[in-house]
Design brief:
Glyas_Bleomycin-R_OHBP_Dase; about 140 residues; alpha/beta
């Protein structure tokens, strides 16, 4: 059987500037591509919204061989109600922990070398204070 992997995760964002700061400056991800759309996605890939929207792909490396995040922004929607089924994403990166501390981004120590923070909009991220793996 062929090896399979998750390609990306979608986050609905209400504040693009703050969200970019978090993913780029705190987590250390790069903006890989950005697309603008004038009409809603016919496959409802951006939710029940039928107006102008955008998606920005961010990650630690190219989409072809790295897991990435898709940041979906629906114009005119400033916030989203989060459900109760998303428990968080865990990243191993001492650099992200250091970045958060330097930028004054809120961190809560929840275990040995384990911190909880939130992206704008309330999505939880767990940061393991260890060197980021190379792959």
């Amino acid at each position: 059987m062929a090896l399979r992997r998750a390609l990306h995760f979608v986050f609905k964002v209400g504040d693009r500037a703050k969200t970019a700061t978090f993913y780029r400056d705190v987590l250390g991800m790069k903006i890989l591509r950005h697309e603008e759309f004038e009409e809603g996605c016919k496959a409802t890939c951006n939710g029940p919204y039928d107006g102008k929207w955008s998606k920005t792909m961010v990650g630690f490396g190219p989409e072809d061989d790295h897991f990435v995040a898709e940041l979906t922004y629906n114009y005119g929607v400033g916030e989203y109600k989060l459900g109760n089924d998303f428990l968080g994403i865990t990243l191993q990166s001492s650099q992200a922990v250091s970045n958060a501390k330097c930028l004054g981004w809120p961190l809560t120590e929840v275990g040995e070398a384990l911190y909880l923070t939130q992206a704008p909009g309330g999505y939880p991220f767990y940061l393991v204070d260890k060197e980021q793996p190379h792959n």
